[in-house]
Design a protein that fits this description.
The structure holds 2 protein chains of 2 kinds.
Chain A: E1 23-25, E2 33-37, E3 43-46, E4 61-64
Antiparallel strand pairs in A: 2-3, 2-4
Chain B: H1 16-24, H2 34-39, H3 41-51, H4 56-64, E1 67-70, H5 77-86, E2 95-105, H6 125-130, E3 136-147, E4 153-163, H7 178-183, E5 195-197, E6 200-204, E7 206-210, E8 216-219, E9 230-240, E10 246-254, E11 259-265, E12 268-273, H8 274-281, H9 286-294, H10 305-318, H11 326-341, H12 349-359, H13 372-394, E13 408-411, H14 413-430, H15 432-442, H16 451-462, H17 469-479, E14 497-499, H18 505-512, E15 514-516, H19 519-522, E16 554-556, E17 562-563, H20 573-579, E18 594-598, E19 601-606, H21 608-624, E20 634-638, E21 648-652, E22 658-664, E23 669-673, E24 683-684, E25 697-698, H22 708-711, H23 721-731, E26 749-753, E27 761-762, H24 764-768, E28 778-784, E29 795-799, H25 800-804, E30 810-819, E31 836-838, E32 845-847, H26 848-851, E33 865-866, E34 871-877, E35 879-881, E36 886-888, E37 895-898, E38 905-913, E39 924-933, E40 940-943, E41 948-955, E42 962-963, E43 971-973, H27 978-981, H28 989-992, H29 996-1000, H30 1012-1027, E44 1031-1032, H31 1044-1054, E45 1062-1063, E46 1065-1066, E47 1078-1087, H32 1125-1134, H33 1137-1149, ...
Helix pairs in contact in B: 3-14, 4-14, 8-11, 8-13, 9-10, 9-13, 11-12, 15-16, 30-31, 34-35
The chains are: A mainly beta, B alpha+beta.
């Protein structure tokens, strides 16, 4: 895999990207990940087992944000 | 200043800026494409009629009426005996009356259990698509009930949630403007007309049914099978109630002249003497019946002895029943039909008979609170039907063709939906009876008058009934299966709904214009139903029907054909007709009096001459708008002919009719004609077709007969007719633009063309239908030249540089739902039921390779590339811990979901779907994968003329031929197909586009080939591109005098090009000019969705069938391609023995099997067990081993020895049990062998190994099971 796991320095909250190789355990039990509300585009942080709905408008479809990692493919 | 309303007029122009503006600023007032919205109107309007407009459901509730149930006989047999002995009357049983007075359907909203949304509780369609749920609203009914004659009590019951059609009056987006639609994540031109069921867009197909309220004379051989003396003659009427449900009544002619009345009720057929129905309807006598049938004594009808004889017989045979008065007949009918009608036990026979007449006999003339006049109408109608039947038998009139559009109408989705809803409500009410009786038994014979009954009625009885009507409708829409106790007078039980696939917009819009003849006819061996009949002119498109099995059964509406969804106001019409001279008296002689009917009700009779005048007058009034005659009224005037259709004036004003606009010549006004009246009208197609003094109407334009899709074929009048059919098919399989709201769509598979363009050559209708919002192809520079040798047999070459610039670049979006729970994920779960959660198990160690794809929430990163077997989501098992109100994981094991497709894709977007209640953790995600598909060798393309081809090479631009101006073609196609294949048998332009020939003569072999219209398009496109203007390619605008080549040739010449469209080209390889000028121009090319990547199939080894050992079939399973008989034959003919051996044996089910040379059997060979047997002793005694080896010499020489070792295992000895005999004491130990049970045998050692197909042994076993032994002779 030619892909390097690249971490944006400013995004401190998301420590989940393991780039150490081999094994890495989860830093926290359930890190909260930010999703986008399908209705009002609000940023909704959710943890494991949280109920799925927008905290603002109560909408029931959440989008996952595009990854902050560098996405690079070989153009072949 | 008031804002200018959005312009809805479109021309052939490109209108680039105008369209850009429409895109940037979706209109706030109205759609810019009203014609497009108009095309799906029948669907929406028919649904709207259920609750608004003519309130079909309300009519249905009235038809259901009151259901009554009696409580049980509450006396023991002894009590009854004593009561009868004492002569007392039976104790009165209590009666429970129930009815539904009103049905409400709410717009889709969140359930009250959801406490989290406050601002907006509506559920919009886009949410249902994204959550893969159903767009549905709560259905409620006001249930009223009454015990004996007490007060009516009511309760509003919730009947579940029923799916709601998009953009109808129960949808939030009914009146949404394009801007509203965009804010609600819809297309700006979202049309609606479909349901969203489990995230799929489903629509109810329009179905052809018999014309309502018109008695059709029918000759059908199968009628003879109805019973003794039945003949093939019948008159059938499909009588439609105001709630759109129908009841078919048939009159059968018996060979002795008698007539019986047939109907079917709850899927059972019943026959009644027609005379009994007549006498039950009205109080009458034989003389009156005779005179209404035949005519008064002085009339001409009396001379028709054919009829008089039969009517006499009719009356005479009926004497046997000895039922004369209306009361007698009704009571008799009531007695006979009481068990099937489901009426309460205490109803009198006469009332049951009345109920029978109300429900079954011509209900279109009165189905509720039937009055005496309505009964008389029914009487008159049956008399008329008898007359028509006798005329049919006598040969005075021709049978009506049930396959002609003139005798058909359309069952609309909304109406069918209403019919099912009505039936479900009725079944629900009926179900109270048994439940109430059961309640009575459980409560120790409590009666309905008990106070406890009233208390328990709602909580115990209604509650126990199946109130979930919504579920039934959702089932209907998602499967298309009709579950119905009555059958709804329809001929099929499945196939009512289809998914409205959005492969491209043509496909999508065609679904809504599609009309199916019924799946019953698909199995029919005769092709008569598939024929294209002249009656269809202007209603069904002659071009747009698929090839193959649904040909002619699946038609599409002509683009100007409308469907009535509402009844017209015609209550004043009878009065007008009477003023015009319609009278009540009649006779059976049609040259004396002909009938005047309105919606299957006899208004009266007039002379044939008067009929003509009445028709002409009404038509003129109708078009000019005087006397309040509605313009949509169909005035079917059938003139008197010699043995033609039964004459009369038949007017139709009700819904489900097709009609279309034509110009009325008398006052140049717009007239609507229906399919029934059209065959008897003089409608000219072109100005040149006008016949002075005869023609009354003229078509607005001849292209009105084509469907939307067929209209988009440029210059279709120049093509050989099947080419246009193919184009209609292919345009619907094109990789196009399904819409602009792709981000919010969750279709299983979506095709998208990245580089769509507007065609240079297009008809003005292209803009009117707003098809530029959904581009379907690319303008390509096409050279027709044989250049590389890679363009044989409809292959084509793509310029590699064009390819690199994005020619034909496409994308597939696949949406997959990954769900954690095995059970239905859509059902809401309690907290306790959640057993799995997305995410890594707490404390589990996670490999970095999983992290490459999966984020810390256990879901994949959006944007990564995934290939087969990659892990895309992590989950772990949990248990709900009530104490901490959280989910705890015990095992600390993380499980993964994998990407299963063979083709790599990118994660385009990821949706987490919450529940409607908003209180569940993530249990399912919807992932959209993007698979880029640039054109590769083997992908399929086509022009707009049914000219498909496969890309055979991507040819480097440097080697492409070039013109004097330096132009290179994008595509090269081969001219070789031209000369022999452009055969066009009919030269009349109008006929050439219709596939009469094709469909009626299946032996006509059609070659794939060049089409003249494509050459014209090429020229027109070239000229249009050079001058920068669009070209109108509407068919029928050029003629022999004014040719298309001349028109476009002049344009080319003006641009400095050759008049004929060809130009000198230079070889890209040698740089020298070709000897011939090459025809090069601009043709609009479509990329078809059939791509090699979805089709290639290759196999060396792989899965095999467990039973036969042969490779399985099917690309998806990694199977092989069958080498069938024909392939085998050709290999034999070529003498390719080794290839044959390889295909049929080695790559299939070859195996080595032991066989006995002596008895020739596979089945009797068996392995001799080692251990106690020969081999161990052989080790002890080498001499014995040598003897054993000698005893089986065949196992020694050559390869035999090695195979023995391989197959015989350690023991190495296989023997034939059949040829062996039991070892005796005297046998040498060395010669004996032992089987698994320790029995010892001697002999049977003449066995060998052969290579055979596995199925041969299988066959042997099968035959042995039937007691047949196969014997093989083994040589060598």
């Amino acid at each position: 895999m030619s892909r390097e796991a690249y971490q944006v320095p400013s995004m401190g909250g998301q420590s989940g990207f393991g780039n150490e190789g081999g094994f890495s355990s989860m830093a926290v039990d359930s890190p909260s990940v930010v999703y986008l509300c399908g209705e009002c585009s609000a940023r909704v942080p959710l943890k494991r087992g949280d109920q799925i709905r927008c905290k603002d408008c109560g909408h029931r479809v959440l989008y996952k944000e595009r990854t902050k990692r560098m996405v690079q493919f070989e153009a072949r | 200043m008031a804002p200018v309303p959005t312009d809805t007029q479109w021309s052939v122009e490109f209108d680039t800026l105008r369209r850009e503006n429409l895109f940037k600023n979706p209109p706030k007032d109205q759609t810019a494409y009203p014609t497009l919205a108009e095309s799906i109107k029948p669907h929406i309007d028919s649904f709207n009629q259920l609750f608004g407009g003519s309130k079909i459901l309300e009519e249905g509730l009235k038809d259901i009426g009151i259901k009554s149930f009696l409580d049980g006989e509450n006396e023991t047999p002894e009590q009854k005996k004593t009561r009868i002995a004492e002569g007392r009357r039976a104790p009165k049983r209590n009666r429970l009356n129930v009815r539904v007075t009103e049905v409400f359907l709410d717009k889709p909203t969140l359930p009250p259990t959801n406490k989290f949304s406050h601002k907006n509780r509506s559920i919009y369609p886009s949410e249902c698509r994204e959550r893969h749920s159903t767009y549905r609203g709560k259905l409620r009914a006001r249930l009223e009930y009454q015990i004996n004659n007490g007060d009516w009590m009511e309760s509003v019951r919730e009947l579940g949630q029923v799916p709601i059609m998009m953009r109808t009056n129960r949808c939030h987006l009914e009146k949404a403007t394009p801007e509203d639609l965009v804010t609600h994540k819809e297309e700006s031109e979202e049309l609606g007309g479909y349901f969203i069921v489990n995230g799929n867009e489903k629509l109810v197909r329009m179905l052809i049914v018999g014309k309502r309220n018109y008695p059709m004379s029918i000759i059908r051989g199968s009628f003879v099978k109805r019973g003794h003396t039945y003949t093939k003659f019948g008159v059938q009427i499909r009588s439609v109630r105001p709630d759109q449900t129908s009841q078919t009544n048939v009159l059968h002619y018996l060979s002795d002249g008698n007539v019986t009345f047939r109907f079917s009720w709850r899927k059972n057929e019943f026959l009644v003497p027609v005379m009994m129905i007549l006498k039950a309807l009205v109080e009458t006598n034989d003389r009156e019946i005779f005179e209404t049938l035949v005519g008064s004594v002085t009339s001409k009808g009396m001379k028709n002895t054919f009829v008089t004889d039969r009517v006499e017989l009719l009356l005479r045979t009926y004497q046997a029943y000895n039922k004369h008065s209306r009361y007698d007949c009704r009571a008799h009918l009531g007695k006979c039909f009481r068990p099937v009608l489901g009426v309460p036990a205490d109803m009198s026979d006469e009332d049951v008979g009345t109920e029978f007449l109300r429900k079954v006999v011509l209900p279109h003339l009165g189905n509720q609170n039937v009055t005496e006049t309505q009964d008389y109408d029914k009487f008159k109608m049956i008399i008329f039907m008898i007359r028509k039947l006798y005329a049919l038998v006598a040969g005075d009139c021709a049978p009506d063709n049930p396959d002609a559009v003139s005798n058909q109408e359309i069952l609309l989705g909304g109406f069918l939906y209403g019919m099912i809803l009505k039936e479900r409500i009725e079944e629900w009410l009926r179900s109270f009876g048994p439940i109430a009786r059961d309640w009575s038994i459980r409560n120790g014979g409590a009666t309905f008058s008990d106070p406890s009954f009233e208390r328990d009625f709602l909580s115990k009885i209604v509650k126990r009934s199946n109130e979930n009507i919504g579920n039934a409708l959702e089932y209907f829409l998602s499967t298309g299966n009709l579950v119905s106790p009555t059958g709804l007078d329809l001929q099929q039980t499945s196939g009512y709904t289809v998914i409205a696939e959005k492969i491209n917009f043509y496909r999508f819009i065609s679904h809504f214009r599609m009309i199916h003849r019924g799946s019953f006819f698909a199995q029919l061996k005769t092709t008569t139903v598939r024929k294209l009949l002249p009656e269809s002119w202007g209603f069904l498109c002659p071009v747009h029907t698929p090839d193959g099995s649904p040909c002619g059964l699946l038609n599409h509406l002509a683009h100007k054909c409308l469907i009535a969804t509402d009844n017209l106001e015609v209550s004043h019409l009878p009065k007008i007709l009477v003023q015009l001279g319609v009278r009540a008296e009649s006779s059976v002689a049609t040259d004396d009096s002909v009938v005047v009917q309105l919606d299957g009700r006899i208004i009266g009779f007039c002379s044939p001459k008067q009929a003509q005048q009445i028709h002409d007058t009404l038509r003129y009034w109708k078009v000019s708008g005087t006397n309040d005659i509605p313009r949509g009224l169909e005035i079917g005037y059938v003139p008197n002919t010699n043995g033609g259709q039964y004459p009369g004036i038949y007017m139709f004003s009700q819904s489900s009719r097709m009609y279309r606009p034509v110009k009325y010549l008398a006052n140049d006004g717009l007239d609507f004609v229906g399919p029934f009246e059209q065959p008897f009208m003089e409608i000219a197609c072109l100005q040149s077709d006008l016949i002075a003094g005869l023609s009354t109407h003229i078509e607005y334009t001849p292209t009105n007969i084509l469907s939307i899709v067929a209209n988009m074929t440029p210059f279709s009048d120049y093509n050989q007719s099947p080419r246009n059919m193919y184009q209609c098919q292919m345009s619907k399989q094109t990789m196009g633009t399904p819409g602009t709201s792709i981000a919010y769509r969750t279709d299983n598979k979506l095709y998208r063309l990245q580089t769509g363009q507007t065609p240079v050559v297009r008809p003005p209708l292209y803009n009117a239908y707003g098809l530029d919002n959904f581009p379907n192809g690319m303008n390509a520079i096409v050279a027709i030249i044989s250049y590389t040798g890679y363009d044989m047999d409809d292959a084509m070459i793509i310029n590699k540089s064009s390819h690199e610039r994005g020619f034909g670049h496409g994308t597939i979006y696949k949406t997959k739902v990954h769900t954690l729970s095995e059970r239905d994920s859509r059902r809401s779960k309690s907290k306790r039921e959640v057993t799995k959660l997305f995410g890594f198990a707490p404390g589990d160690e996670v490999r970095a390779e999983a992290k490459a794809f999966i984020d810390s929430d256990g879901l994949p990163h959006v944007g990564v590339r995934v290939k087969e077997g990659d892990k895309i989501a992590a989950y772990h098992n949990v248990r709900y811990d009530a104490a901490s109100d959280s989910y705890v994981n015990v095992d600390g094991v993380t499980h993964f979901l994998k990407y299963k497709d063979a083709e790599a894709g990118y994660i385009e977007s990821l949706r987490i779907m919450g529940s409607e209640n908003g209180n569940e953790p993530a249990q399912s995600i919807s992932v959209k994968y993007r698979i880029p598909r640039k054109p590769i060798i083997g992908d399929k393309f086509s022009s707009r003329h049914g000219q498909k081809g496969v890309c055979s090479q991507l040819w480097p631009a440097v080697d492409m031929p070039f013109s004097e101006s330096g132009m290179q073609p994008d595509l090269i196609i081969n001219p070789h197909a031209f000369p022999s294949r452009m055969c066009n048998k009919i030269n009349t332009p109008l006929l050439s586009i219709s596939p009469y020939l094709r469909r009626n003569n299946l032996a006509n072999s059609i070659h794939p080939g060049m089409t003249i219209a494509q050459m014209i398009e090429s020229m027109a496109g070239k000229a249009g591109a050079l001058h920068g203007h669009p070209q109108d390619c509407t068919p029928f605008q050029f003629s022999e005098e004014n040719t298309a080549t001349d028109y476009f040739g002049h344009q080319l010449r003006k641009a400095g090009y050759n008049y004929y469209g060809n130009e000198p080209l230079y070889s890209g390889i040698t740089g020298r000019e070709f000897a011939a000028d090459i025809y090069m121009g601009v043709v609009y090319y479509q990329r078809l969705r059939h791509m090699v990547n979805d089709k290639f199939q290759v196999r060396t080894t792989g899965p095999v069938n467990a039973l036969t050992g042969q490779p399985v079939k099917g690309r998806a399973k990694g199977g092989g391609i069958r080498v069938g008989e024909m392939e085998r034959d050709s290999l034999i003919a070529h003498g390719a023995a080794f290839l044959l051996q390889d295909r049929l044996m080695n790559c299939s089910d070859a195996q080595h099997a032991w066989i006995c040379r002596d008895c020739g059997s596979f089945l009797s060979t068996q392995v001799a067990v080692s251990g106690s047997g020969a081999s161990r002793r052989a080790a002890v005694n080498p001499g014995a081993a040598a003897a054993a080896a000698k005893a089986a010499p065949n196992q020694k020489h050559g390869s035999g020895a090695t195979t023995v070792g391989a197959l015989g295992g350690n023991a190495g000895i296989v023997r034939c049990r059949r040829c062996a005999r039991s070892a005796t004491f005297s046998d040498s130990r060395a010669e004996a062998w032992e089987d698994g049970d320790g029995l010892r045998f001697v002999g049977g050692d003449n066995v060998t190994v052969v290579a055979v197909p596995g199925v041969l042994r299988f066959l042997d076993v099968e035959l042995a099971a039937m007691g047949i032994r196969m014997k093989f002779w083994v040589d060598n």
